[in-house]
């Protein structure tokens, strides 16, 4: 979808007519974009409408007469319509919306918080971000071993995300992870097992982060994750989740090795922007400090 076109088609799936009216009025007040808005009152009805008509964006209420909570997004997402989705939730139920974002929703809005310009900006950002990710899925910018983005693909993608973040006032967080024991595994068990170690990490990282976050292998044993619109609170939750995921993996004893990572984090503030190179440098330095201290966030050493 080209956000430079005159009209953006939006489907609102919500059973509350008042919410639909208020949200529609907020969008129509937008100075920069025009919206063509349709609505459906249930998940089933919304799914049927999307099958028959093309939309640029779907705004999906998570609590509908025929579906509740995260299952609402899961059911819609499993249909693979290829449409960016912004979920809508009530005040106090934002954790469910965050989980939906982790699984692929582009953003969320809270019912009643319909500032016209902010809402329009969030929707435009969701559409453009979905476009970028869809475009890159088809390029030869993947690491052959892990299936993740390689350095070239990641750098190109991340540059575009930084530009969008500056324009739409979105924060970014970059996570830099380096394997501590890659050489040891290669020396003791052979390079085929070293490759398996890389594949294991490549499966764990995307599983821990949101589907909307982008993971890449940018070096031999180096991985990065770019989280758009992520807060420090989100990162604390993710680090805890990663810690538990690695402990679970290591406790199975299925591999002759344990996964040990050193991690560094840097943040991008659109009000005080820095270059992508500087963002990566700061995360890289933080990672090396973590490795040097032998007090990785993810291991009780």
Concise structural overview:
Helices cover about 50% and strands about 20% of the residues. By secondary structure, it is α/β, with parallel strands linked by helices.
The low-confidence parts are 296-301
User: What is the CATH topology of the largest domain?
Assistant: Alpha-Beta Plaits
CATH superfamily of the largest domain: Reverse transcriptase/Diguanylate cyclase domain
- Number of E strands: 9
* Sheet with most strands: 5 strands, parallel
Summarize model confidence as the mean pLDDT: 86
Strand order of the largest sheet: 2-1-3-4-5
Number of domains: 2
Shape: elongated
Structural class: alpha/beta
Overall helicity: 40-55%
CATH architecture heading of the largest domain: 2-Layer Sandwich
Integer-rounded radius of gyration: 21 Å
* H/E series: EHEHEHEHEHHEHHEEHEH
CATH class descriptor name of the largest domain: Alpha Beta
């Amino acid at each position: 979808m080209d956000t430079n076109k005159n009209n953006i088609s939006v489907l609102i799936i919500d059973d509350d007519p008042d919410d639909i009216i208020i949200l529609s009025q907020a969008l129509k007040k937008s100075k920069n974009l025009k919206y063509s808005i349709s609505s459906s009152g249930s998940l089933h009805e919304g799914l049927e409408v999307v099958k028959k008509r093309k939309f640029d964006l779907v705004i999906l209420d998570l609590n509908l007469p025929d579906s509740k909570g995260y299952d609402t997004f899961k059911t819609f997402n499993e249909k693979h319509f290829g449409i960016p989705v912004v979920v809508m939730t009530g005040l106090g139920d934002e954790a469910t919306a965050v989980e939906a974002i982790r699984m692929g929703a582009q953003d969320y809005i809270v019912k009643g918080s319909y500032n016209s310009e902010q809402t329009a900006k969030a929707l435009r950002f969701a559409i453009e971000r979905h476009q970028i990710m869809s475009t890159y899925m088809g390029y030869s910018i993947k690491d052959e071993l892990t299936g993740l983005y390689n350095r070239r693909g990641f750098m190109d993608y991340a540059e575009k995300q930084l530009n969008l973040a500056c324009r739409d006032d979105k924060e970014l967080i970059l996570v830099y992870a380096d394997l501590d024991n890659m050489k040891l595994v290669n020396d003791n068990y052979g390079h085929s097992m070293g490759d398996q170690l890389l594949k294991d990490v490549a499966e764990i990282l995307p599983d821990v982060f949101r589907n909307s976050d982008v993971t890449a292998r940018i070096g031999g044993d180096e991985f990065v994750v770019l989280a758009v619109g992520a807060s420090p609170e989100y990162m604390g939750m993710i680090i805890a989740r990663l810690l538990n995921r690695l402990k679970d993996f290591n406790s199975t004893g299925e591999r002759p090795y344990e996964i040990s990572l050193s991690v560094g984090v840097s943040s991008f503030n659109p009000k005080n922007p820095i270059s992508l190179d500087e963002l990566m440098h700061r995360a890289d330095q933080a990672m090396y400090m973590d490795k040097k201290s032998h007090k990785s966030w993810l291991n009780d050493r």
